[in-house]
Amino acid sequence: MIDRLADALPRLEIDVPNGSDGRYDERWQATVRAFQRDVGIKDSGVVGALTCSALHRAISVSGQWGC
What's this model's pTM, rounded to 2 decimal places? Predict the structure, then answer.
């Protein structure tokens, strides 16, 4: 999941934590919470179906798939 977030969030001009050791730590949770607040969903920090859907929708609308 970290790899997917590290790929997707920068497409939305969201900075991702540097130096991650592959763990979903506090820095990643804070980044995800900020994204969740920005898109109007509960800022739980959990990357579930609703967050994934919002992430894909935001990237789609922004045209940043990079295909």
Answer: 0.86
